Amino acid sequence: RQPWMACPVQFLCRGIRTIGLVLLYYVFSIGITFYNKWLMKGFHYPLFMTLVHLTIIFCISAFTRRAMQFWTGKPRIVMNWSDYLYKVAPTAFATALDIGLSNWSFLFITISLYTMTKSSAVLFILFFSLVFKLEEPNPFLILVVLLIASGLFMFTFKSTQFNLEGFIMVLLASFIGGIRWTLTQVLMQKAELGLQNPIDTMYHLQPLMFLGLFPLFLYNEGLSLSSSEKLFRVTEFSPFVYSLCTLSIGGLLAFGLGFSEFLLVSRTSSLTLSISGIFKEVCTLLLATKLMGDQISALNWLGFAVCLCGISLHVGLKTYYSKNKGPSLRQLNSKSPELELPLLRQKGDEGEESAADEYDDEEQEITLH
């Protein structure tokens, strides 16, 4: 192949790879949203469903860690109890509540209202980023907050399918999600913990997430689930197998979502994931109106557009300041030859992207998505 042909071919290959990773992310992200809503129509135990998903993710992560250790010949990180309980537990409990409340809300609200309300997580991520001094104060952030908040108000104003209980659950999940992602960023920035690899992070988070969500499950669903004919009081074997299979599909989707996000970020950039997330929300709402019959008025669509403008402005501002002010967060060394890349990394130019493709031992920056 001639040298002058190398650049266009590499550009084409990189473009095809990026499109493929984005589509893979869309399949898992949109798929698990519609799966949760579909399952909640006949299986009214969202917290139990979440516990099953956590168990499946833990098992897959443990198997993947063992396979990676066998392939590379290097032992995986195992945290001591002191760091595990004091440094990982807050992130695990916040993540468990975020996911649990999000799944619980599907009993009450439509996919469109869930998607729109969940977009407000950007507000809480900004707030806690400023509290933890992970984000520098910026006057444009006021405009971002106003756009997202006003868009959320217009979307929920006079909505024909509005449910207050489900809306409060998603809004609370978004608030806890702001804590979750901020703590996750802090956790993955601590190089001494060795949790830069998302497989190791998921492996260590799942048990504490399970323990954090289990008391809430016992209080709300324990008694009714123990007398349910679909699981613990089964009279026929086939419904029991069907329930287990459908729950297992959700666990696979949940693991695939986390890993597809990592692949997209590590092989492209966190900016790609942010922009892809914006278009993903549009796709989700369009599918919800076509497949689930969600009713969205012109005012609701206008509110959604205003909210997307706020999110897009936030993404653009982070890109601008990361390029002009340089890295403002702690740098990490990525030493492992396999998947040792930070989950939420920001790249500034093509040179960094090439280095990521070759898994060089350069310093990588974690930024909050």
SS strand fraction: under 5%
CA-based gyration radius: 21 Å
How is the main sheet built?
2 strands, antiparallel
- How many beta strands in the DSSP annotation? 2
Quote the average pLDDT. Answer: 76
Low-pLDDT regions = 326-369
Morphology call: globular
Structure, described:
It is found in: Membrane. With 369 residues, this protein is mostly helical. The protein has one domain. It is 73% helix and 2% strand. The chain is built from 12 helices and 2 strands, in the order αααααααααααβαβ. A two-stranded antiparallel ribbon has the order 1-2. The longest helix is centred in the first third of the chain and has 38 residues. 42% of the residues are buried.
Secondary-structure blueprint:
Blueprint: H1 3-40, H2 46-72, H3 81-105, H4 111-118, H5 121-131, H6 140-156, H7 164-189, H8 198-226, H9 237-267, H10 270-291, H11 298-325, E1 331-333, H12 350-357, E2 363-365
Antiparallel strand pairs: 1-2
Helix pairs in contact: 1-9, 1-10, 2-3, 2-8, 2-9, 3-7, 3-8, 4-7, 4-10, 5-7, 6-11, 9-10, 10-11
Summarize this structure as a short list of keywords or feature phrases.
369 residues; 73% helix; disordered C terminus; mainly alpha; transmembrane helix
